[in-house]
Design brief:
The longest helix has 19 residues. By secondary structure, this protein is an alpha+beta fold.
Length: 165
């Protein structure tokens, strides 16, 4: 996995972490949603940021937050494959590579989907800021990501074989 690439998540993740605020997979025949990945070097976990094509809906939410708080770090607008999308930092969550289904590939060019360097810088800066604020008690992320993170960081303990008497 690489920071700045997009991935699809296995259904098992959503079964292992049944949080109502996680953006669930849309069914076996749809590879949606897709997630932008960045690696938290402190934990080794990857954080997945969903994005949506419902730009107008989220632009209205963005404007409400700007009017109310003077800023909005949880939504970021930018282009993916030449179309405007909105990145939902308010719905990001951590995963391990074991939960990655596959990388999002541009079928026309047969290369991994990426965003511009400027957008990538903005995404990483905002994601790290939102996560840091969330860790300090500001509820900016809807899923219980700190509980998911704790579970993912638990050491794997293999079953101890029993001895025959």
């Amino acid at each position: 996995m690489d920071t700045g690439h997009f991935y699809f998540i296995k259904d098992e993740f959503f079964l292992d972490f049944p949080d109502p605020y996680l953006m669930q997979n849309k069914g076996p025949s749809h590879d949606r949603p897709c997630f932008y990945a960045w690696k938290d070097t402190a934990t080794g976990l990857y954080w997945m940021i969903p994005f949506s094509s419902k730009v107008q809906k989220f632009r209205e939410i963005y404007q409400k937050k700007i009017r109310r708080y003077g800023r909005c770090d949880t939504l970021l607008f930018g282009d993916v494959l030449g179309r405007e999308k909105v990145f939902l930092l308010q719905n990001m969550f951590p995963v391990t590579t074991a939960y990655i289904k596959e990388e999002y590939i541009d079928r026309n060019a047969n290369i991994p989907v990426r965003v511009s360097g400027v957008l990538e810088t903005q995404l990483l800066r905002r994601a790290k800021r939102v996560l840091a604020l969330h860790r300090r008690g500001s509820r900016l992320i809807y899923p219980d990501v700190l509980a998911i993170e704790r579970q993912l960081l638990l050491p794997f303990v293999s079953p101890t074989p029993t001895k025959n008497p």
